[in-house]
């Protein structure tokens, strides 16, 4: 990208152009209808929309929805360098934290220092999942692929040999951010088993 030295605007634009690369990162989930795999940018958009629609179901009253939205928009930017790690692939998850930390260092450093630090702090808060906002954001991040798998008649689960016990175990984190959404997700899992979408 052409830029004028190291001006604030030039660095902000460079970051935004780099962020566009998230559209290239393919996830294991398919969009509804199974025509193609979704990319990580689409996933980030979808869970941001979910936050707007489902905020009333968050475990913590008075949630800072803007902070949740920031987390959801930023949390997967590291996949530009680190790639998407399939949550059910235990071997691929080894070293994921280190890969993503290195990616965060590089990507947020593209911005002017104060901007990069502020956005990195939001990313770090999501990763720590200690705050009410981070717990709700992570709940949505886990719920979305479960919804897509159910809508696609379990095709992703079946393709990878994922079983109900794995789905329950790895998605139980939804309960931390929203017990109500976890109850709903649990019913979907039960129904997926009943319909033959998910191997019990």
Overall description:
The chain has 200 residues and is mainly alpha-helical. It is built from twelve helices and two strands, in the order αββααααααααααα. It has helices at residues 8-19, 40-54, 65-74, 79-82, 90-93, 96-108, 113-128, 132-151, 155-159, 164-171, 174-177, 179-195; strands at 26-30, 37-39. Strand 1 and strand 2 (37-39) form a beta hairpin. Helix 2 crosses helix 8 (132-151) and helix 7 (113-128) packs across helix 8. The longest helix is centred in the C-terminal third of the chain and has 20 residues, at 132-151. It is globular. It starts with 7 loop residues before the first helix and ends in a 5-residue tail after the last helix. The mean pLDDT is 95.
Mean pLDDT: 95
What is the alpha-carbon Rg in Å? Answer: 18 Å
Number of helical elements: 12
Order of helices and strands: HEEHHHHHHHHHHH
How much strand content do the residues show? under 5%
Largest sheet: 2 strands, antiparallel
Q: What strand order characterises the main sheet?
A: 1-2
Distance between the termini: 51 Å
Structural class: mainly alpha
Poorly predicted runs of 5 or more residues: none
Question: Helix share of residues?
Answer: 55-70%
Tell me the number of strands: 2
- Describe the global form: globular
Q: What is the fold's blueprint, element by element?
A:
Blueprint: H1 8-19, E1 26-30, E2 37-39, H2 40-54, H3 65-74, H4 79-82, H5 90-93, H6 96-108, H7 113-128, H8 132-151, H9 155-159, H10 164-171, H11 174-177, H12 179-195
Antiparallel strand pairs: 1-2
Helix pairs in contact: 2-3, 2-8, 3-7, 3-8, 6-7, 7-8, 8-12, 10-12
